[in-house]
## 1
Amino acid sequence: MFSIFTRVSIFDLVFVLSAVLFNLLITGIFIAQKHGRPKLVKIFGILWLSLGIPLLIVFINSLIVGRELWIMVYFGFIILYMILELFLDYILHIEFRSKPLLHVPYIILEYIALFGLIGISFAIDPIWGYIVTSSFWLLLAGLIYLYWDRITKKMRRGR
């Protein structure tokens, strides 16, 4: 039963646990936003950003051990997404989500990063891949929950 933990290196384990937390914290942000809890959104956001540290350590280790190029590219997108989030939301405080010209590329980068987490997890071990994928589906459920009122309102208006 615990062989899932012993079949992987410590760096791989740190990665997959960070990937699950990555998705779950974003889910928590969505739920906190839905309930108008800005302090909780900020706490979850800071915890999410702190995942950049273990992910960066795993990335550096992956460079050292010579992981496949596609894994390095996915790491690049994940780290770029986290840096962009740090700058836009926490340093520059830019309200970019209401501007489609800025928000659409941001969303594309976000999903590339999310799929990168899944892809790298499957490369580590299929079981971990499915676990990270499950946490991604929870993230999507949280996103639907966040926007459910808008979705149903548009459906009632016939749009």
Note: The mean pLDDT is 95.
## 2
Amino acid sequence: MSFFKRIFSSKKETNNYESKQSQINTKEYFDNRYTEDNIDPKMLKGCLKMIESYFIDNKIERKIQSPINHPINLDQVDQDGFGFLLYCKAFQIEESQAAMFVAYSFSDFLIKKYGFKLYMDSKPEYPLRSMTLKYEKDEVFLSLYPFEYTAKVLNGNSTFSDLVEKIKTQIDEMPDLEDLARNSTN
């Protein structure tokens, strides 16, 4: 059974919804749970080289020339040729490592394009959520789990392009703190 099948078919812990809702996400709580992180430049360079070599070895022309980690290109890595997971397997790279190459590459794109910040979660609710990207606008956060999402893409359940469109919409529709304060007093 593949790594992704084991993760997604595993029994999820049941959450106590009410206790989660009553938990207040204060700055102290946030700082205790999340640690800001950076993608190691050497690791990122290796991830991007693997993606670039996939295009070269499969003789696939990228739809977007630059950056290599554009979501449309990452979708091509999943959909064109024989697939990035099989490609990495030929180099004896495990599925989880191959997925991490793509997750770091996608994360780098979102960090540079939209200003997301990478955090490590000390208490992830699910196995693939220890790495999280957060976008902040006036103390309102948009969160994304790049490794979990990459697993969905590599399993054929989504695309990076679709997610970026959703992110653009969410960022445009994010309320600012003043709007929230006005609406809560009405």
Note: Residues 102 and 169 are 23 Å apart (CA to CA).
